[in-house]
Amino acid sequence: MTTVVLVGGNGYIGREITQQWLERDPKAEFYVTSRTDRHVVEDPRVHHVQVNPEDAAAFEQALPESADYVVNLTYGSVAVLNSLRIYAERHGAQAIGNINAVATTPGFEDFVAMKKAELEYLRKSDVRVANVDLTAAYGAGRDDELAARIKSGALDDQSPVHVEIVACLLIDRLLREWAE
Fold it and tell me: Which of 24, 21, 170 lies closest to 161, judged by CA?
């Protein structure tokens, strides 16, 4: 049985990762963490864990004794990254998953710099990091300002990527599908 922890996994990309992985691996169990009691994907193999990931002790206590994969879908908190990294190192994770931002669109510079620093921090771990560089994601019902900008063509030079492809790439890189 594969155990996957998705930190901040109730969001747009986390939802897609969970749904695809559920289809790929009928024995996988998922622990989706959230600060709120939000349950986006309902399935008997998806366990919703309400926890503040900035509290490393509470985070570790709320999750299973071992995890094969830990996926970071958060941004903006070194404390969360620290909790995630400690948990992955102590509980036998094979890899940490991450989505990095590489957009060059004006207005995103600070976000891109923050995500780059987060990736560098995760790579200091003893656990392998599987990363996907992303400009912008669309599809699967996304209906916000970013989706409108993508649909209008305003981000064509950034080569937006369908969220299904982003999720597939991250899962493949975590599992090292090419090595089987």
Answer: 170
Token pair 């923050």 is found at 114
Tens of pLDDT along 133-171?
988 877 878 888 878 888 888 888 888 888 999 999 999
> 15, 171, 141, 11: which is closest to 75 by C-alpha?
11
pTM, full prediction: 0.92
Q: Is the distance from CB of 85 to CB of 119 less than 8 angstroms? A: no
